[in-house]
Amino acid sequence: EAGGRVCVRAKTLTMETLNPQVKAVEYAVRGPIVIKAGEIERILQEGGKKPFTEVIKANIGDAHAMGQQPITFLRQVVALCTFPELLDSPSFPEDAKRRAQRILQGCGGRSLGSYSASQGVDCIRQDIAAYIEQRDQGVPSNWENIFLTTGASDGIVSILRLLVSGEGRARTGVMIPIPQYPLYSAAIAELGAVQVNYYLDEDNCWALDVHELHRAYQAAKQHCQPRVLCIINPGNPTGQVQSKKCIEDVLHFAYEENLFVMADEVYQENVYAPDCEFHSFKKVLYEMGPEYFNSVELASFHSTSKGYTGECGFRGGFMEIVNLDPEVKAQLVKLLSVRLCPPVAGQAAMDVIVNPPQPDEPSFAQFHKEKASVLGALADKAKLTEQILSAVPGIKCNPVQGAMYAFPQIFIPPRAVEEAKALGMQPDMLYCLRLLEETGICVVPGSGFGQREGTYHFRMTILPSPEKLKVLLEKVRDFHIKFLKENSALEEPQCRVQA
Asked: What's this chain's function (predicted)?
């Protein structure tokens, strides 16, 4: 102390000294709108008054938080793995016990509490390879190309880490769909890579157009070296399911331009439209013949978080890698080993997803019923969402063919656009904040995912219970009509403001 004054040492880590790549990261799914929703929830809990009684969070694909029930068989197997004393209990079916014993045999000291190999437990990797072969109707899968990951996100970031290099015009460019899931833009910013946008075709149910890939690639070559093509199928936030022909076109493009393909297929179980079917990138690549199958580098991703299980908190996932240079593969193993291993309980949950009860096993009937019920309810909710939103003047919602989100286009009158500009925020952010403050509904503005200039959207999940979803959609409808009235005394609502 000098003359009664306390000398405060300056902080080492300030916004000036912070890694600039961290500052560049944005993640809308848990961004400002969600922080505001949390504040409103606290006010309600403390007895504060709002024009609604609860906040409905439709901002994130978190199935269990929205009331979806766990799949019994999955929880039984994980419980048995966690507490093996239960293997003697008559309350657990034999098929669950068999799976748990097999997984525990693959664990050091027969305990989920031991580290596994960095790539994951061997027998689980073998089960995943068998699952992929069955899913792809006999396309071979080598278990040594399977890596378990902490959710799909961790695998996606690990592969991007391998791919980012070069300086200036030689810097790696990563092609991502717009709208995209913001994990991609965040990882690209954090790694200092170059984001290359290709736009999905909203007028054509968010289809991927190969001409748009060519356009984006050629434009990007002026300032970076595009090396990676990311695909999300079924789409998030857009919910489209790609046709086989489209996937062929994309793989042909990647082959011609020598791009590494990353196929985010975490919603492969979530296909609702009767005229749509999931085709894995790997299977289509195989069917294109050996010239393609033996040369295009492909990493595909799956997860415990989505599908009919919705087990987000286990952080289980895997990736399969095809045609990776053997020396590079050794480098990937090295990189993964720094993080030791993915959560072993998450690996066990992943095993149940790829190795579910078979028709001749005791748990099959209940498992099948629970799975069908979850996916059936999601299909109904996908339809309901599109029907209610599309009937609102000034909202246009494409069919939700798959995944678990709708990404409707909303007309925002010029007056509200001007007001948002004056407040220094995106017009769809203003819209979503108003929606939250007036109705308690939390959705994410389209600007957090990317959208064509002059168009506005929001993303909402279709996970709430049918009753809650109906209330949510009707509240959105009433709010939107009121919002149009308040902001366009002289303007007629028109839906399309397409750039």
From this structure: Catalyzes the reversible transamination between alanine and 2-oxoglutarate to form pyruvate and glutamate.
Q: What is the pLDDT of residues 438-493, one digit of tens each?
A: 999 999 999 888 888 889 999 999 998 888 899 999 999 999 999 998 887 554 54
Give backbone dihedrals phi and psi of 128, rounded to 5 degrees, phi first.
Answer: -65, -45
Look at residue 72 and tell me if it is in a domain.
Answer: no
Total count of residues recorded for the chain: 499
Containing 405, the helix (H) or strand (E) segment is strand 405-406
Residue 344 shares a structural domain with residue 387: no
Q: What is the CATH number of the domain that holds 280?
A: 3.40.640.10
- pLDDT tens per residue, range 282-315: 999 999 999 999 999 999 999 998 888 988 888 9
Strand partners of residue 380: none
Domain boundary residue, one of 354, 377, 399 = 354
Neighbours of 304 (CB within 10 A): 27
Q: Using an 8 Å Cβ cutoff, are 277 and 287 in contact?
A: no
With respect to residue 14, please indicate whether it lies within any of the assigned structural domains.
no
Spatial CB neighbours of 228, under 8 Å, sequence gap ≥ 6: 160, 163, 172, 173, 174, 175, 259, 260, 261, 262
Q: Is 373 in the same domain as 467?
A: yes
Banded pLDDT at 499 (limits 50, 70, 90): very low
Domain carrying residue 481 = 20-66+369-487
**How distant, in Å, are the alpha carbons of 118, 119, 191, 215, 317 from that of 333?**
7, 7, 19, 35, 16
Domain count, the chain: 2
